[in-house]
Structures are given as C-alpha cells and as structure tokens.
Design brief:
heterotetramer; A alpha/beta; B mainly alpha; C mainly alpha; D alpha/beta; A: alpha/beta; six-stranded mixed β-sheet; about 30% helix; globular; D: 10 helices; binds adenosine-5'-triphosphate; binds magnesium ion
Chain lengths: ~500, ~325, ~375, ~300
C-alpha cells in the first residue's frame, strides 16, 4: 500500500519539500543502521516517522542534527544542498531537535540549559546574561511554564524538565523541528500542551518531524507519515489515507492481531499481601493483595510514588513501616537479594540505568539476578547450563540479536527490554513487577511483552503492571490500583473501571 | 548562574577561619598580618595549579602530570636563563608558559585525539616529563648559583605590600573566575562534565575543550614552574614530587566533584588555602615533625567528610521539595 | 508461545521467529535474508582482527619484544639466576596489583596500598620487638592490612566518599602513623623465620623467590575467580553499572567493601614478604609503590573507569614492566630514564590499538 | 667491554645529588690512575632502600667486581649485599654505611664525632656561644644525619655552650621546598632564633635561602655541611659565616682505590690492616672494619671562591 514518493501528496502548497534527504546510509560496526534512506518534510506540516525499535529513526535524527555524519547521502534544505557536520551546522540550516535521550545539565540553570551551545554574548565575547535571562523568560512564557530562567535545573520535576527541552527546541527559531519520542515521559495534560505547541509551530509554517510509538498520538498530530524498517525506507503517505493497521503491517512486516492479549485466567490464592507499607517521604499506607494468575495494574500520574513503593517492596529503599506477606508468610526484605529469594522480581522503569548492564553481553545480563542458579561447585559458572538457559529464554521472548554474547548496547530498546525481562524470569519468580515495561518500545515488541505477561499470568505468576498509559493498564489488568500523592486512592475491578473514573481519581478527584 | 558562593563554600571558609584562630591561640605569631601574607604567598602556586586542575576535573578528566610539568618547565627555563643571562623576566615567563602549554597540549591531544583515558595519559607523561628533566640536565641539579639575580628576584618582589606571587595568583584567579562564569567556554566546561552526551547534542565539542583544558593546565604549570624554581633557587628532577596529589586534594576539598561537572573558582581557592594553612601551621605549632604527615592526612579526610556532609541532604527530601515546587507551580 | 507448562522448566519452542515477516511486494521492500533475522549464534563469530587487536595479544607481543631487546643489549639477561633475582623486585607489587585490578574493575581505586604496607610492616616490627614469632607476625601483618583496607572501605561505602579522595587522605594518614611511631628509628629485629620467607626459595632451580610463587598462585586464583565464577560476574556487573547490579540483587556495597579489605590484605601480605626480604622497617618503606601498582593494572588493560579487564592481562603487564626495568638496569640506565620508557610504553600500548582500529575502520568504509 | 678490566660500581643514595656527582669525579680519577678499572656510576631516583636493592640486584646480575655504596638504609640493604658478597663481589660502603655483616668495610668520610663537634663549634664561634639554635636535618631515617645529630648533642652538653640552647630539630627530607618551608616556620616559631645547623647539603642551601628571603641576614646564621659551589651565594650574602665539608672527590677517589685493592687481593679490609689509596696515602682500618678519612674542612669568605670552582 505504499505510495510512490514522487507523487505529490495533496494540493499545491506541498509542491516542494522544505527538507529532502536522499540516499542516506549509515553503518556502525556490525550494524547497518540506515541504507539508502530518504525523507521529505513539508512546511506547515507534521510528518510522523514510524518504525520498530532499532529501525534507525534516532540515527536519522542524529544525522539531521549533525551528531552523526552519514556514510552517503544528500540533504537539500529549502532548495539548497547542504552538509551538516555539527549541531551548529544544523541550527544554521534551521534544523533543531528534541532528542530521545534527555539533554539536561542538572547543575546549570534553566536558561543555560536552553541556550547551551548558543548563548548570547556581548561584543566583548562575554555571556550576555541580561539577554539570556530575558529571552529564556519569553520562551518559558510562550510554553506557559511555571518556573523561571534562573532556577537550577535540579530543582525541577520530570515534567518540568521536559518543558525545558521543548523550550530549547523553540529557542533556535528553526524552520524544521524534530521531536524524537517527546511524549514518552509526559502525562496526558502535558501531552496536550505539547500538541498545542505543535499546532502553533505548524501555523507559523514550520515543518515538524514527529517520532512516537504511540499510534493515537500519531493520528492526532501528524499530517503525513514515513515508515522505516531495518534502516530502509518502506513507504510514506498521508495520515488521512491510512489506517493504524496499515502502518503496523509496514513497520513490523505483519499485522498484530492483539496488542492487549489479555486472557481469562483463573485467579488463585493470594501470593503477595502488602499492609500499611510506608516510608518517610514518598508513599504511605500502601495495602493491597496480589493473587496467583492475576495482573494487577497500577495507574497514576508520573510522580505518584508507584515506582518508589515497588522499590520499597523490593528492598531497594526499605520501607519504614508495614508488613509484606508472601504465600501468607511474613517476608523480611532488607535488600534486593532478599526479595529475589522471596520470589519477587522487579523490572525497573529506567532500563538504561537500573535494568540493563549495556556493556555486557546478553548471556551475562540474563544471568545477573540468578547467578546462584547457574553456579556449579565452588561458585564456578556452569556455562553449558547458562547457555542453554539463555537460548531458551531468548527464544521464549523472541530476542533479536546476532549472537548471545552481543553487548546490550548494540541492541534496540525493545530487545534490551526483553533481555531485562528474561533476566528476571530466570530467577523463577512468583511475583513479577513490571514498571513501565513498554515505555519507548515499538508496537511489535509491546505486543510481545504483553503476550509474555499474559502467558506468565496463565502459568500462575502474580503480576504487577505499573503503567502511565491508560489503555495498557485497562487492557491488561484484572484489577487497577490508582495511586495519587503517594497513597492508594482507589482500586477498580476490571468491570467497574472506565477511563474517565480512573483519570479523575488519579488527578486527585473523587469520582 | 546562581549565587557566587554556595553553602558548601561558606562552611569551608568557616572551617579555615576556625582553624586559623585555633592555631593562633597556640602560636599567636600565626595570626600576624605578615604571617597571613606569607601563607597566602606560599599557597599562591597551589591556588593557580588547583584552579587549572579544576577545569580538567570538570570535564571528568584528571591531570597527574602537572607537578612533572612544573619541574620540567622550571628546569628548562633555568637552563635557558643560564645560557642567556640577558633574557628579560617577562620573556622567561612567556617561554615557561609556552613550554608548559606545549607539554599540556601533548596530554590534550592524546586524550582528545585518541580517546585514551586521562589518568592513563597523564600517568604516562608524568614519568616521561620527570625523566626528561634528568635527561636535559644530564642528571645535574641547578642551584641559585646557576641562576641570574633577575631570575631569582621576581618571586621575592613586592608591590604595594603584596608579594608578586600573591598578585600573580590573584590575577590568575580573576581570570579563571571570568572564564568560568562569564564566557561560553566556561559554561561549556560545566556542560561537558555534567552530561557529555547532552553537551554533544548542543554542539559543544568535548575534544576541543579537552585540548583547551589540558593546554591551560600545562600553561599554568609552566608558569608555576618558573615561579617555583626561582623562589626556591633550585631545579632538579624531583622538585614538587607528589605535588599533583596536593593539587587534586585542594580541588576535592574545595568541592570539585571527581565525577565532573561540579566545582567553582571560590571553592577551589578555599580548598587550596585550607591545605596552605595546614602546611604552614604544622611546622609552626611545634608538633613533632613525625606527626605532621598523619595529621595532614587526617585533616584532609575530615575536611572532605565535613564538606560532603554539609552538602548532603537525603535524596528523598530533594524529591519531595521538587514535587512540592511542581505542585505549587501547577495551581 | 506455549503457556500451558509451568515456569519451572521454561517451555521453549525453538521455533524460528514467529514474527518472521511474510514476503512483501513493492519496490521498497528489502527482501534479502529476512528469515535469517532471528537466528542467534551461541558465540560471537571468530574474527582474526579481534584476536590480533585483543589487549593480551598486544601484551604478549610487547613481552616478546622486551625479552628480545634485553637479550640483545645485555649478555646477562638470559640467565636463570638473574631472572629469578629480578622477579623478587616486582613480585610484592604484583601481588598488590592483583587486588588493585579487582578494585579498579569495579570502578574504585586504592592509592593507600603503599602506606598500608608501611603501617603493616610497622606493627609487625613492634610485635617482633615484643617477641612475637614468625607465624604471629604473618597474622599480624595480614590483619593490619585488612583493617586498614576496611577503614578505606568504610569511608567509601558507608559515608559515600569517592575512593580516590579517601585513599589520598589515608595514604598520608597510614604512613603518617608509621612515622609517628618510628620517628627516626628503624626496626631491624625480625625472627629468622620471617627472613627465610622473604629471602629464600622453595626450589634450588629455578631459584625463584617465595614471593614469586605466592604471586603465581594468587594470580591463578584471582583469574579463576574473576573469569570463571559467579563472583567474577558480579564484579563486572558492578563495574559497568552499579545501579543495575544493585537492582539485580547484587550486594554492591558489601562487595566493594570486601574488595577494599582484599586490597588491604594484599598490601599486608606484601608487607610480610617485603619486611622479610629487607629485614627492616622504616616509615618510608615502599614509598611510591601505589603508582607502580596502578601502572601495572592499567597497562594490563583494566579500564580505569571500571567494567573491563582481565587477570591474564595484568600478569602479562607485570612481566612487561618488571623485565623492562630489569633489562634497562642491567645496562645501568638510571631508574628515572627507565620511567620515561615505561611511560611511553603505557601510552603507546593503549594508543596503538586505538589507532589501528581507527585505520581499519577507515579502510572498511 | 674488556673482560680483564675490573668493573667497580659506585652506587649513590640518589642520582643527581651534587655531592655524589663529586664522589663520582673522584672515582673516575682513581679509575684513570689505575688504568684497568671501569667505573659504573649508578643509583636510584628516590632515596629508598627498595630502589637501591633493585640497583644492587642489577649490578649482581652483571657480575661486577666490586660495589661501592652509600646506603639509604643501614640494615635493609644487608640481604641484597650479602647475596653480592656470596657471589664473590667485593662490597664496601662509603659516606653512609651498611651494617657490618653486609659489607667488607666502611669508609667514613670523616670521623663522626669530629663532624658533630665541628658543627657545634662553628655555630658557637659565629654566635659567640649565645642564643637559640635549631637543627634542620634531612629525612628522619638518614643514618649518618642521626649519628651526627647524636654527636652534636654530646658536644653541646659541654658547659661552654650553656647559653646556646637547642630549641628544635626539624626535617626537610632533603627536599628543597620542604626544607625552605621548615626554615621559614622555625624563624617564625622562634623569634629569638640565632642559628640553624643543617648537616645536609640540600638543607643548608635551602635554609640559607630562606634566611636571605626573610631579610634576616645578620640576625640568623646558617651553618652545617654543604658544598662550596652551592654555598657560595649564601656565604657572600652573609647568611652563612662558616660551614664545613670533607672533600667528596677525595672520598670517591679513596673508596674506588680501596675497592680496586680488594678486588686485586692487595688488601683484605680486615680490622687492624691498612689499604694504600693512591694520593690519599695509607688508610687504616679500625674496629668494625671502619675507616675514616680526613677531618672536615671549614669554608668561609676567605676561601669559598677558590673551592667553589672545584666541587
Ligand atoms: N552509536 C552506535 N553504535 C553502534 N550501533 C548503534 C549506535 N547507535 C545506534 N546503533 C544501532 O543502529 C540501529 C538503529 O538505532 P536507532 O537508535 O536509530 O533506532 P530507533 O529507530 O531510534 O529505535 P527506538 O525506537 O528504540 O528509539 C540499532 O540497531 C542500534 O543498535
Ligand atoms: N526532582 C527530581 N530530581 C531527580 N529525579 C526525579 C525528580 N523527580 C522525579 N525524579 C525521578 O523521575 C522518576 C519518576 O518520578 P517520580 O519518582 O516522581 O515518580 P514515581 O514515584 O516513580 O511515580 P510513578 O512511578 O507513579 O510515576 C523517578 O525515577 C524519580 O526518581
Ligand atoms: Mg530512537
Ligand atoms: Mg515511576
């Protein structure tokens, strides 16, 4: 169903793309990230770039912003051929980006964060602090931010930091604004704000490249789409003329029948009973029960304290009060090792920092939480056992890699996530806690993760799913716990839950 | 740019003052103006070297070759002045800075160009520079008899009651303050140290800055080399042996984070002064010479612990405050 | 995916890629090797370049070069007795280097090792003067080392100070204590047994010093632990990502602490051997060894920021450094000039593979 | 390398020290005179025993015929030199000695007692037996320094010096800047300080420089052991009235001569015997197989210029 790229989409105003990238290839040692890729962006339009994890989207962004230099390829901006060798070149050509990785300097002020790399200077070459602060405050006002230019960045919350990233992209007054998964850590309200800003930019005639794994967003905000697979251009077209299923087929190469393959499972005995769990600052009086075969969803706004509560349960930051019972027996958990012994597994939220040891291989990562199980006599690693287990888990989770010793940093986000989940499955847990397990991973992998969850639940595991994505929580859970301000605000049955009620409770309402 | 001095620096300043007062109780001569000026003079070289080292540590690097650079440059300019007794001192100082800068540039190129870890590069050049002194001087020591009077006179000169060393250190300090707070380069240094990936995305080039900071550190070490040799009237392979650790200790006591991205000019100056006070007080308060090393070790540890603690607040509280700020802002 | 069986034995269909995409039409479809996408090899495919550019290979080449050059410049080099003597000058440092390698591997460093040697030697001396026998002295030397290491470990793990800072401080503190106690005196009264340990050899030919045999045994143990056991895995995990290691149930702080104790213990052992070898304790014993030890570890290919490195690499580096020093001193090159050579060796050993890789990458394009 | 040459290694405490460089010159003179001697001048970079042991091991491996050494540590070198002795290498110490079991004989530059007395006498003469005096030593473990300080204290106990008091002993570690700073501190801590005795060639120069820099020439006098070439400035500036040293060239010369004689078998080094040492004449070997050379020689304004050109 792909549209030949030379067919001009829509009316005359599209006539010439403001940016035309063609024949772009980029290789990394052992990986072809991009191969003959092309991309057109049009003034006043938003183009969505879709593709699986590792398809090469961010690589493309980094080429456009001068962080990587492509091996081959040409770039034409506004009819002029240009070469981009550094972010400065990109700015000069009117290209700016919000990158997938946070671009944050915690020890500097908001103003410096926004203008890093292009701070205004006086004639003597010294930084012009007056102009800097003035322009920052203007930008902050424009995006309706609630903090000021001189605030140190480390005092801001997660969402506020994202506003700073957006302000930085706007600070260049660019013709082309690229956003690489800008919504991954934003709440619904902030996403609305972002979309308002995008609409604003469009009306000013700027071209926007929007990358996201969330189709609802793509269909809300984009006018056009371009699809990538394994570094190749596999199609492009108008959003109005396509469907979600078409896009999925193009990017994954097959259709996904079910993103939320929740199965009916007989709920068993309580496996985990938590009572009155509190710590001094983040969460208080957390009480709930998890049964075998059950998927218990935890919903809340970012900052509701879900992660911290689970990390307390895991012994990462032991709680000050409360009891934990596993199979009706009290468990003493003071460190993650205790929790693992008790049968709890926790797939953390921040994959890069808390989950994966990216310079190590798949095999070693998978063994990390269950080294005792592959230890032979005298603590020696039983490599045969280990390799067999790696193959099994790898196949079960359909990990895509060249070999089992491949370093995690060479894998795409989705595959890294699968390895981290495999690491925890290797501990043979009774309780599996998944903290935002599908954040930033593509639809195919997401469906795979959901399928794994459903299978595991059917096998009798108790699963806790923390997610800030409402459809995911509602689609996968038997019951939904809603947290707000560090406390459990309400627990919904699958039957009684509606999106409106859940959101209202999560935002502090009392519906 | 936030406030000029932080809480941590105030604590350190308070510690220094308290320490000086205590020493003064035992040995009143310590608190005389003359002695205070002497301590500052004696610490001047350390202040300069620590400030330069700070810029390197900010980029997540470290320069262990500074003392060797100081010694080599000192020897070279002493030899130069010996061979050409007519050279004016400003020229000697410029040559010292050029030689030191050149040696620093070698470090910078190895670190930035080849991506070898700074500690490895400078561990290597440290040995090389030290050995080079032995080679260029044929193993000989140069003493004041080999140096001209003009060469020896500068560090002793006084202007308006302040020693030339103090004035040089003051100028260097002001220079660094301007560099770190008022120029793009200075802010870029914080950026690359705080988050190298993000800095790259902002068009801040780490390699360029690395070349710059190692060259800068080398230049200051070179200048210090002349000052040191001229002040003590001696040059040989082992002068300022182990001084690199004192320089690094000054930075750390002054609140420069070994992990990069954090550190300030006032803090580093205070860190150097702290060590300067300790070094000058110990021989003076008549403690047994055998105790000096143990005491300075203990004092360094204590200062670092207190200093870390003064900054230390439970992580959780930071989050709560942030959250409160966020919540407050949303209404 | 099968869901019917229990987790206990992980039912795993070795089905090749259920997701393998069906062939697609259209001009833009990449059609090549689609079905191979999900075949995962067990091991990284062998590549000669990897082997040739491996750190250990470079060190082996260096070692061969060093031996060749030394044989060429001095007729006294290839002599069993001389080589055996030479090992006694680096075996104690090499023992400390093994522990240091593990510490650097987890991203820490201990600059106080030489000072710990001085402190251990001092306390052994005091005990010896008080009449303690050889065995007692060994126990005391090791325990003092372990305690000093524990002190470092406590400051790093419990108070959370960076180890480079802590050990710069304890470096002065430990040696300072030795100086406080000894002042201008030396302790020279050591029992026969301790001197025998430090000065004699197990076998007549080759007459290698006992310290060398101890080093070899410890190197084998360290190599096995690091590369073959689960404990070694933990160290690599901590060195590469301490947070993820902690989240995975690894007791990061405890292991770090243990490694500091181990580093102290190795220094204590070095103190026992060194004291026995020279039969005398003064506050400046082992002065400056910390940098030599760090150089051994770094030349051995252990990444200074943690997470990578091997024991065979460190052992090779020990020999490269030790034999270079010995060969040069056979032709009476002054020590400080030898240091120039070692400095060049350190930098070029790290630079050359980087440059070669860069060139290869350039060619490959 | 000619096989029939006698190879004698002279090992300094540390390379680069002017004193030992002068000893080497003496050794070379002896080698030239004897004709069949090759002198290897070597030493460690740091003044530690371990570093010196490494040097000795390398010399043993080269199978030199004799080692002449100034020890960084009396006892620590014994195992290493014993090994050398057991392989037929003649080991003697000079300047700073090795314990008797580790060497054939020891050549003292001068008589320790004389050196101690000399230092105190020079100071007393300058100060007219009155005032506060401090000692600036090298490292706290330097053998010869400690012996000399001991001897100084014995001399000091005499009633003549009752009004001349010893107020402190500090250590400059033979490091120029530490010695300088220690001197500065002495001056400040003891406002009535009149004199500093530094029985070390590094310390005395630094101390004199500190006195000059503090503007205390004429108020504080520095004396001790130093090299004329290095002390010329201090004497001319007036910071030092007199100082002493034995002749390092003669010392190196004699040590080399003795070593050559031992190798040739013309001497045994036993107590009670004597050795012929070229232009230095016959050197008697006393108890403990020790021998001593001439008295220290005193330098002042009148002769400094002349000797500064020599060593
Ligand atoms: N610096 C690098 N070195 C080696 N390989 C890299 C590098 N950066 C990216 N890759 C590889 O290039 C491919 C494309 O990665 P890229 O980050 O562009 O994917 P993506 O489409 O942005 O994925 P995601 O949706 O997970 O963000 C992947 O296989 C990745 O592993
Ligand atoms: N001010 C801040 N400074 C540093 N990190 C922060 C700050 N605020 C939040 N974070 C981090 O961002 C992440 C998410 O924020 P937060 O902790 O507020 O949410 P949470 O407690 O994990 O709640 P939930 O999981 O319900 O979203 C956490 O990992 C937290 O540590
Ligand atoms: Mg991406
Ligand atoms: Mg969270």
């Amino acid at each position: 169903m792909s549209i030949t790229p030379d067919v001009q989409p829509g009316g005359g105003e599209y006539a010439d793309p403001i940016l035309r990238l063609s024949g772009v290839s980029k290789r990394f040692p052992g990986v072809r990230a991009l191969e003959g890729m092309r991309l057109d962006l049009y003034a006043g339009h938003t183009t969505a770039l879709v593709g699986e994890n590792g398809a090469g989207k961010s690589t493309l962004v980094k080429i456009l912003t001068g962080i990587y230099t492509p091996d081959t390829g040409t770039l034409v901006v506004a009819g002029k051929e240009c070469e981009i060798h550094s972010p400065r070149d990109a700015w000069a050509d009117g290209i700016t980006a919000i990158h997938q990785e946070p671009v944050m300097f915690d020890d500097l002020s908001v103003a410096e964060n926004i203008f890093m790399g292009h701070m205004p200077v006086t004639r003597r070459g010294l930084i012009d602090w007056t102009t800097l602060v003035g322009r920052t405050n203007e930008l902050l006002h424009r995006i309706e931010a609630d903090f000021s230019a001189k605030t140190p960045l480390k005092r801001l919350g997660v969402a506020q930091k994202h506003m700073v990233e957006i302000a930085r992209a706007l600070s260049h007054d660019a013709r082309i604004v690229i956003m690489d998964e800008p919504t991954a850590a934003l709440s619904a309200r902030e996403i609305d704000d972002l979309f308002r800003i995008i609409a604003d930019l469009k009306s000013q005639g700027r071209a926007i490249l929007f990358i996201s794994h969330k189709f609802d967003e793509i269909f809300r905000v984009a006018d056009r789409w371009t699809c990538l697979r394994d570094g190749h251009h596999v199609g492009e077209g108008l959003i109005s003329e396509t469907t979600e299923d078409d896009l999925v087929k193009l990017m994954v190469g097959r259709s996904i029948d079910q993103v939320f393959p929740k199965r009916h499972v007989v709920i068993g005995e309580p496996v985990l009973q938590v009572e009155g769990l509190s710590n001094a600052t983040e969460y208080a009086d957390i009480s709930f029960t998890l049964h075998r075969g059950e998927i218990l969803g935890f919903y809340g706004l970012v900052g509701a304290g879900r992660s911290e509560a689970m990390q307390g349960l895991m012994g990462i930051s032991p709680p000050t009060q409360g009891t934990i019972r596993i199979n009706a027996k009290r468990a003493a958990i003071f460190a993650p090792a205790d929790a693992i012994d008790a049968g709890i597994a926790y797939v953390p939220e921040d994959r890069q920092i808390q989950g994966a040891v990216t310079p190590l291989g798949i095999r070693e990562n998978m063994s990390l939480a269950s080294l005792g199980k592959i230890a032979g006599k005298g603590g020696f690693v039983d490599t045969h056992k280990e390799l067999a287990r790696t193959r099994d888990l790898g196949a079960k989770l359909a990990v895509k890699a060249a070999h089992w010793d491949q370093k995690l940093m060479e894998l795409s986000g989705g595959n890294q996530q699968k390895v981290v989940i495999a690491k925890w499955l290797a501990t043979k847990p009774q309780i599996l806690i998944l903290d935002e397990p599908t954040k930033g991973i593509d639809i195919g992998s997401k469906a795979a993760v959901h399928a794994i969850m459903a299978d595991l639940a059917a096998e009798g595991l108790g699963i806790i799913l923390i997610s800030s994505e409402l459809p995911e929580v509602m689609g996968m859970s038997d019951r939904v716990v809603v947290m707000a301000e560090g406390r459990i605000a309400r627990v919904f049955d699958r039957a009684g839950a509606t999106p409106e009620k859940i959101v209202s409770i999560a935002t502090g309402g009392s519906a | 740019m936030t406030s000029i001095v932080t809480r941590r620096e105030l604590v350190l300043a308070a510690i220094i003052v308290a320490m000086a007062l205590l020493i003064g109780l035992r040995t009143p001569v310590f608190l005389t103006l003359n002695n205070i000026l002497f301590v500052v003079t004696d610490t001047s070289v350390l202040i300069m070297m620590a400030l330069a080292q700070m810029t390197v540590i900010l980029t997540r690097g470290i320069d262990l070759s500074v003392a060797a650079n100081l010694a080599l440059t000192g020897m070279l300019v002493a030899l130069l002045s010996h061979a050409h007794p007519g050279l004016p001192i400003p020229i000697i100082m410029l040559v010292a800075m050029a030689i030191g800068g050149g040696l620093g540039l070698v470090n910078g190129l190895l670190v930035a160009g080849l991506g070898i870890p700074p500690i490895v590069v400078t561990l290597g050049t440290m040995s090389i520079y030290r050995g080079a002194i032995f080679v260029v001087a044929g193993g000989a020591w140069l003493t004041s008899k080999d140096m001209t009077d003009a060469f020896l006179a500068f560090p002793k000169a006084e202007f308006a009651g302040l020693s030339s060393l103090t004035l040089v250190a003051a100028a260097v300090t002001i220079g660094f303050f301007v560099l770190m707070t008022l120029t793009r380069t200075g802010r870029n240094l914080y950026a690359v140290g705080g988050n190298p990936v993000a800095a790259r995305y902002c068009g801040v080039s780490l390699p360029k800055l690395q070349v710059l900071v190692y060259t800068l550190t080398g230049t200051i070490s070179g200048l210090a080399g002349y000052l040191w040799v001229a002040r003590f009237g001696i040059a040989y392979a082992d002068i300022a042996a182990g001084y690199e650790l004192t320089v690094i200790a000054s930075c750390v006591i002054g609140g420069v984070s070994i992990a990069g991205g954090i550190g300030s000019v006032p803090g580093t100056v205070l860190g150097a002064l702290f060590l300067g006070v300790v070094a000058n007080a110990l021989p003076l308060i008549n403690v047994s010479p055998f105790w000096q090393m143990a005491i300075s070790g203990a004092v360094i540890l204590a200062a670092v612990i207190v200093n870390t603690r003064s900054e230390w607040r439970p992580r959780k509280l930071i989050l709560r405050e942030a959250r409160r700020a966020a919540a407050g802002g949303q209404k | 995916m099968s869901a019917s069986e229990p987790m206990a034995d992980l039912p795993l269909p070795h089905s090749p890629a259920p997701e393998a995409p069906p062939p697609q039409s259209g001009p833009n479809q990449p059609t090549s090797n689609q079905s191979a996408r999900y075949t995962v090899l067990d091991r990284k495919p062998f590549r000669l370049v990897d082997l040739l550019l491996a750190w250990e290979t470079i060190l082996v080449l260096l070692l061969v070069a060093v031996i060749g050059i030394n044989t060429w410049i001095s007729p006294y080099f290839l002599d069993v007795f001389n080589l055996s003597d030479a090992t006694s000058n680096f075996s104690e440092k090499a023992i400390v280097a093994l522990a240091m390698a593990l510490l650097i591997l987890v991203g820490e460093i201990d600059l106080s090792v030489a000072a710990i040697i001085a402190l251990s030697s001092l306390i052994m001396g005091l005990a010896s003067v008080a009449g303690v026998g050889t065995f007692g002295l060994i126990v005391i030397g090791l325990s003092v080392g372990a305690f000093a290491g524990a002190f470092n470990g406590y400051l790093v793990t419990a108070i959370g100070l960076p180890s480079i800072v802590v050990t710069i401080g304890t470096m002065s503190l430990f040696r300072g204590i030795a100086q406080v106690v000894l002042g201008d005196q030396a302790i020279t009264k050591y029992p026969e047994g301790l001197q025998t340990l430090g000065q004699t050899t197990l076998l007549a030919v080759p007459p290698l010093p006992n310290s060398f045999y101890i080093f070899v045994v410890l190197a084998v143990v360290a190599g096995l632990v690091l590369h073959r056991t689960t404990a070694g895995r933990r160290l690599y995990a901590i060195g590469n990502n301490p947070v993820a290691a902690r989240f995975s149930g690894i007791r990061v702080e405890r292991i770090r602490f243990t490694l500091f104790v181990l580093s102290g213990l190795a220094s204590g052992l070095a103190a026992v051997l060194l004291t026995g070898r020279i039969g005398s304790t003064r506050p400046n014993i082992a002065l400056g060894w910390e940098l030599e030890v760090v150089t051994m570890v770094v030349l051995g290919g252990v990444s200074i920021s943690g997470g990578s490195g091997t024991i065979p690499g460190v052992v090779l580096a020990v020999f490269v450094l030790g034999l270079t020093t010995f060969g040069m001193s056979l032709v009476n090159v002054p020590g400080i000039v030898i240091n120039v050579l070692l400095g060049l060796l350190l930098i070029s050993a790290i630079a050359v593979p980087l440059v070669v890789r860069g060139i290869l990458r350039g060619l490959g394009r | 390398m000619a096989a029939d040459k006698i190879r004698i290694a002279m090992v300094a405490k540390a390379l680069g020290n002017g004193f030992f460089d002068a000893c080497r010159d003496g050794g070379l003179e002896a080698a030239k005179e004897l004709g069949n001697v090759e002198l290897i001048y070597t030493g460690p970079t740091t003044t530690t025993a371990e570093a010196q042991i490494q040097v000795i091991d390398a010399l043993v491996a080269q199978k030199v015929d004799a080692i002449v050494i100034s020890a960084n540590d009396t006892n620590a070198l014994v195992p290493a030199t014993k090994k050398a002795l057991s392989r037929g290498i003649k080991v003697i110490s000079f300047d700073s000695g090795i314990a008797p079991e580790g060497r054939i004989m020891h050549l003292n530059p001068s008589n320790n007692q004389l050196i101690g007395q000399k230092c105190v006498q020079m100071m007393a003469k300058t100060l007219k037996n009155e005032g506060e005096v401090a000692i600036l030593s090298a490292t706290a473990q330097a053998t010869n320094q400690n012996i000399w300080i001991e001897e100084m204290k014995k001399e000091w106990a005499k009633p003549d010096y009752a009004k001349m008091t010893l107020v402190a002993t500090v250590y400059g570690d033979d490091v120029a800047d530490k010695s300088y700073r220690e001197t500065q501190a002495l001056i400040k801590a003891h406002p009535n300080l009149k004199g500093i005795i530094a029985p070390t060639s590094v310390g005395i120069v630094a101390a004199a420089k500190a006195v000059v820099d503090a503007g205390l020439v004429g108020k504080v006098y520095v004396t001790g052991l130093g090299l004329p070439s290095e002390m010329k400035g201090a004497v001319l500036a007036g910071a030092t009235d007199t100082f002493a040293i034995w002749n390092p060239i003669d010392l190196g010369y004699s040590a080399t001569m003795i070593a050559a004689a031992l190798v040739a078998g013309t001497a045994t080094g036993k107590a009670g015997t004597s050795v012929k040492a070229g232009r230095m004449g016959e050197i008697k070997i006393g108890d403990n197989n020790d021998a001593a050379m001439a008295d220290p020689f005193t330098f002042d304004k009148s002769n400094i210029e002349k000797f500064a050109k020599i060593f």
